[in-house]
Amino acid sequence: MLNKILKTSSPFLLSFVLGSCSIAGTWVYERLDNYLADYFKGFANFSKEQNKEIDRIAKSYLDWFTETELPDIKILLEDLKNLNYKTPEESITSAYEAGEDIFQRTNQYFEKPIIRFSKSLSNKQISEIESHFQKLSEEREERRRKDSENYLDEIYENYVSGFDRIGISLRDDQEATLKLMLNRYVPLREEWSLLQNEWVEKFIQLLYMNDAYAYETDMSLFLRSFEEIGDENFREKSDANQTLAIDIIIYVLSSSDTKQIKSFQRSMDIYLNSINRILSKRSVN
């Protein structure tokens, strides 16, 4: 369950972390555990004790993330701010890989507490979790039907707004090049949706066996299997889209003018100043 949640929501998590740093400083960031706990609590009708355990897990995660990962994010942002804008390839690729590593470590952090928590679930609660996933799947399918004809436009707008959030307002020529580059994008939503549904179905089946002797080992192996979801053809297409994303970021930064670079650096400073306040408040170097 957790690998699925984090894999599909990792862009949200990173945006939320950076957004909480820039918009409201430590106030929002220090409540990230509450938002995360509320998200998990929506999966089923949990008991009072289970809700307390969710709160504890979320708080422990925020403490761990702040002490272990936030300093690395600070270094990553400092490197991005000071990169060579004429030849940013190596810096961007390294930053992208570092970001993936952060989410991989988050998956690993949550694995044991989530498995322990899942052993407390009743069959009724597991059924509710199944219904919750089914609802998410139906909503995802409805969005896919509505947006199927304009999917590339949606991706384009996401890139434009994403660059805007880090201080880079794209010029007309950059927007035109972005549209051309997105012709390389390989649509995967339908295939990805089917794979998710198959994975969730197996996950629910395993949850119903949460009192079995080898349950913890079996669930641990299953959660990790999500990283290799899909066949070789699917993973090749997914890797191609990831390469495209890196190429787009490299293009935009390498083609940025002085005004865009200064605006980008100001955005990095906003994030860095807030991260420094958060780390200082928690006495993390």
Summed up, the helix count is 12
The proportion of residues forming helix, as a percent range, comes to over 70%
The count of domains is 1
* Helix-strand string: HHHHHHHHHHHH
Beta-sheet strand percentage? Answer: under 5%
Whole-Å distance between the termini?
Answer: 33 Å
Mean pLDDT: 85
Structural class of the helix and strand makeup? mainly alpha
Low-confidence stretches: 1-16
Radius of gyration: 20 Å
Largest sheet, in brief, is:
none
Care to describe what's here?
- This protein is mainly alpha-helical.
- It has one domain.
- The chain is built from twelve helices and no strands.
- It has helices at 2-23, 26-29, 32-41, 48-81, 89-118, 123-147, 151-165, 172-181, 189-207, 215-225, 232-254, 258-281.
- Mean pLDDT is 85; it is low at 1-16.
